[in-house]
Amino acid sequence: MRYKFLTLQDGSEVKAALPYIISASRNCDLPSEPDKLLKLLSAPYVSKVNPFNHKLSYITFDEVKLLVLWSKFPRVFLKYPQFFKSIPYKTALLYTLNDYEKEGFEKVPNLFNRINLFKECVRLLGKGAVIWRYDPIILNGELTPKEHIKRFYNIAQQLNGYCDRVIFSFLDTRYPNAKKNAAYLKVIPASEDEKLMLIKNLVEIGKKFGMTLQSCAQSSDFTVAGAESDGCIGKYLVKYYRLNSSLCRDRAQRKLCLCFESRDIGQEHGCKFNCAYCYAFKEIKWRECC
Fold it and tell me: One Pfam match, by short name (predicted)?
């Protein structure tokens, strides 16, 4: 990562990152809050608090080539549909579409509206720029592999012609909060064979609708089930946008993450969707919200 000295309004100088790629955001769903996102992207730099040492860090947009949006419902494309055509860098959207409506695991708009917005984002950005995240896969007494196959097929069928890539992962319970919530969600651990069989079925559904499946930060090798292995900000996006292929791996992410380096402009614990499985929220917070 390259850096520069940035002069603040009070005249002081600070060290600021010069990222090639920025994320908005792994930490919170910024695209669901249009005004907040545009305010950040319209400034020459952003500052954020490090949750571990509580120090401010600074990020400038001087050398940005790609903006990666992460969202479950990117309202920004409803309120400001032309904004991303005006910025001097490319935009990719990682759009999470789960069907947990029956279970009430997420406080998001209904699946019908989320799918319609996915299609609108494709019309605005292009099919290759909008990637479907089927993440996380939660397995319990009701959410069996058979049920996931059914729900995945339903979404894939509706996205036929609008999606050519799907990123999946299984619920990661290594985070303390996620581990607590897993018990509340009555998660049933799956064997390697069960996971492989499920993904093999999802891969076949993907082929039916012209979609390639890709794993995200998984300890299992799902290439044997026909899925690709790549980072969410990985080789696919580098090739699609013809970016610098000498990008470094993002060491700030989990060891299994294959993403290239980016800087996140979102602040931790800022998401309002309060997903029951989120690693960032404690169990008690989710219970209060629901």
Answer: DUF1848
Tokens of 12: 């002081």
Domains of the chain (ranges; CATH) run 2-289 (3.20.20)
CA 111 – CA 131 distance, rounded (Å)? 16
**C-alpha to C-alpha distance for 277 and 201, rounded to whole angstroms:** 24
Q: How far apart are CA 190 and CA 286, in angstroms?
A: 24
Residue 255: what residue type? K
Length of the chain: 290
Q: What is the pLDDT of residues 166-208, one digit of tens each?
A: 999 998 877 666 677 777 788 898 999 999 999 999 999 999 9
Q: How far apart are CA 61 and CA 66, in angstroms?
A: 10
- The proportion of the chain whose per-residue pLDDT surpasses 70, expressed as a percent, equals 93
Longest Cα–Cα distance of the chain, Å, equals 61
**Cis omega before residue 109 (within 30°)?**
no
